TrEMBL record, chain A:
Keyword Transcription: yes
Protein name (Swiss-Prot/TrEMBL): Response regulatory domain-containing protein
Key words, A-Z: Nucleus, Phosphoprotein, Transcription, Transcription regulation, Two-component regulatory system
GO biological process, one term: phosphorelay signal transduction system
Transmembrane portions of the chain: none
Every Response regulatory domain range: 12-139
Modified-residue entries (4-aspartylphosphate), positions: 72
UniProtKB/TrEMBL annotation, chain B:
Source organism superkingdom: Eukaryota
Native source species: Citrus sinensis (Sweet orange)
Name assigned to this protein: Histidine-containing phosphotransfer protein 5
Length: 199, 131
């Protein structure tokens, strides 16, 4: 897969959120991070934009340049999870990273999104630092073998600990972190991601 | 407890010359959203047979948008409100509705005052510190 950085310096992001407030926020967060943004209010509209709704046979020229899709999880009609699945089923868009945002930090929900191939799961409210980190990560074109990268679980745990939400982890999660499947680049001193505080 | 938390100052980081009224714009969207949601909650709770899932859905949305703009007290009432929805406790819900409405009104009033003052400072040629 060609890296995004090679194709274009500017990320084109499709943002999906049913909340007016959150849509405005994510749009601004992305604009200020020098991304081009298309913001829509539902999974259905997102699929229409991408030409995946079955109605249109031709996807819009702009939609083809989407480098990242960031979607809210809880939406009426089609959830972010259902949208994620539809995108991953598409031959045209399955390689596009999909990030899920949610105010809920429910581990089972997080896990199922990652299993389905989500690039990341960000707990709301989304901050400028989240977008910056995400953008750097996407621009570097770091490939994810599947959604279960240890990298993502680390970031989640850092986030959850930073927000001081008490959470009890099942032993299987703790084991995943210690697995030797972590990409070697993460153990380099230049790794931008914090080491997890193992419980 | 403060009316707004750190998220409110995060919003100011998103305001610059290219988007000089961002905070006011987001706050306005929040006001519209909150008022619609509070009205919907009230209507739902007035029904002879209350649909608590529906009420909870409105509260969840309000919790989300209040969290996004840093409206701490409104958000905290929403958290309690959701527990009463889960328990299908109408009395508890009614109390929370009153509380959330009160907190929202206070917040709106304070923010509008703040914005007015900022406008006045800017009009007088001054600048508003971010911290």
């Amino acid at each position: 897969m060609a890296t995004v950085a090679e194709c274009s310096k500017e990320l084109h992001v499709l943002a999906v959120d049913d909340s007016y407030v959150d849509r405005k926020l994510i749009e601004r967060l992305l604009q200020i991070s020098s991304c081009k943004v298309t913001a829509v209010e539902s999974g259905t509209r997102a699929l229409q934009y991408l030409g995946l709704d079955g109605e249109q046979s031709n996807v819009g020229f702009d939609a083809l340049k989407v480098n990242l899709i960031i979607t809210d999880y809880t939406m009426p009609g089609m959830t972010g999870y259902e949208l994620l699945k539809k995108i991953k089923e598409s031959s045209v868009f399955r390689e596009v990273p999909v990030v899920i945002m949610s105010s809920e930090d429910v581990l089972t929900q997080i896990d199922s999104c990652l299993e389905e191939g989500a690039e990341e799961y960000i707990v709301k409210p989304v901050k400028l630092s989240d977008v910056k980190r995400l953008k750097d990560h996407i621009m570097r074109g770091e490939p994810q073998a599947n959604g279960k990268s240890g990298l993502l679980k680390r970031k989640l745990i850092d986030d959850i600990q930073a927000s001081s939400v008490p959470l009890s982890f099942s032993s299987s999660v703790a084991c995943d972190l210690e697995s030797s499947q972590l990409p070697s680049s993460l153990s380099s001193p230049n790794c931008p991601f914090k080491r997890p505080k193992l419980l | 407890m403060g009316y707004v938390d750190d998220q409110f100052s995060q919003l100011h980081k998103l305001q610059d010359e290219s988007s000089p009224d961002f905070v006011v714009e987001v706050a306005s969207l929040f006001f519209d959203d909150a008022e619609k949601l509070i009205n919907s909650m009230a209507r739902a709770l007035e029904q002879p047979c209350v649909d608590f899932k529906q009420v909870d859905s409105h509260v969840h949305q309000l919790k989300g948008s209040s969290s996004s703009i840093g409206a701490l007290r409104v958000k905290n009432v929403c958290i309690a409100f959701r527990s009463f929805c889960d328990a299908q406790n109408r009395e508890g819900c009614m109390r929370c509705l009153q509380q959330v409405s009160h907190e929202y009104t206070m917040l709106k009033s304070k923010l509008q005052t703040l914005f007015r003052m900022e406008q006045q400072i800017l009009a007088a040629g001054g600048s508003v510190p971010l911290e």
